[in-house]
Amino acid sequence: MIGSREHALSVVVPVYRGADTLDALVAELAPLTTAFRTPAGRTARVAEVLLVHDCGPDDSDVVIRRLAAAHDWVRPVWLSRNFGQHAATLAGMASSGGDWVATLDEDGQHDPAYLGPMLDRAMADRADVVYAAPVNPAPHGAFRNVSSRWAKRTLRWLTGNRDAGSFHSYRLVLGEVARSVAAYAGPGAYLDVALGWVARRITTCPVRLRSEGERASGYRLRTLLSHYWHSVLTGGTRLLRAVSVLGLLFATIGFALAVVLMWMRLRHSIHPAGWTSLAVVGLISSGTILLALGVIAEYVGVAVHMAMGRPLYLIVGDSQEGPLGADEEEPLPVEEPEPS
């Protein structure tokens, strides 16, 4: 039997270029701020919508202030500078107070109507995290969609995280898990990897993605590759172990080759022309060593960033209401002198 408890949802939206899309997204969320029934009959309500301003190039801050003034359930979260989508999402999670935290993109690609089914899936599977599982191709190019599927599959193998293939920016997270992850995740921790460290169970829910409209994706190939590589580095030490195994394999081959060469030398069967193969072996070995050192250096770099204590994000007040906004206030009227 389904209980009568009302589930309070906090919706976190990282905002970078949302001046043209936030109004429509908030309008879609407005009906969900009153109690509604999920498909399974549970009672839920969007208690707050946190718009995290990530200091983008457009007038998103103006739109956020207007929406916050019009709706008491819209809460702005102001960041001191641009920190990126994952950091902005963690900042919103840290500022949330709901039983569940849902993360949506600002571009309208994620349909809020699936919040109910995602909650039902979380309750049915007793899961801490529910990722959206798109039933249709993402509204990107064919090359990017294929690359994304390949990246998730390889990420699962390279990190040993069986849920890596389910990572998606449309997610529903148990509130206490989301806030705990936001509290301890440092600059070296990838959001979804960090969730996997503490989540008891992770599941997925089928959703249909919508078009991004006329707005092009802000992620370029370089950014996507950076996210992928960072996920590999923070996902565990499996890659480092693979490099160690590779080094052991080449060391074994080298030892066996040395024995063969010594035997051939004793039989006087080595001629000067054979030194070319030694040069090739030397190049392969040095290349393997450099590759291993490069991977180790990447891990050291992640550890250094975490040890330095560099903040992942910094929440500040609305700049319009602080000293920086003082010059933008309307000037006080100048009193005209009375005629004598």
From TrEMBL:
GO CC terms: plasma membrane
Top-level taxon of origin: Bacteria
InterPro entries: Glyco_trans_2-like, Glycosyltransferase_2, Nucleotide-diphossugar_trans
UniProt-recorded name of the protein: Undecaprenyl-phosphate 4-deoxy-4-formamido-L-arabinose transferase
Keyword Cell membrane: yes
MF annotations from Gene Ontology: undecaprenyl-phosphate 4-deoxy-4-formamido-L-arabinose transferase activity
First-level EC class: transferase
Keyword field: Cell membrane, Glycosyltransferase, Lipopolysaccharide biosynthesis, Membrane, Transferase, Transmembrane, Transmembrane helix
Biased composition (Acidic residues): 326-340
Listed GO biological process terms: lipopolysaccharide biosynthetic process
Cited Gene3D superfamilies: Spore Coat Polysaccharide Biosynthesis Protein SpsA, Chain A
Species in which this protein is naturally found: Nocardioides soli
UniProt entry tagged with the keyword Cell membrane: yes
Enzyme Commission number(s): 2.4.2.53
Region annotation (Disordered) ranges: 321-340
Glycosyltransferase 2-like domain sequence ranges: 10-150
Record field: transmembrane: 239-263, 275-300
Family per record: Belongs to the glycosyltransferase 2 family.
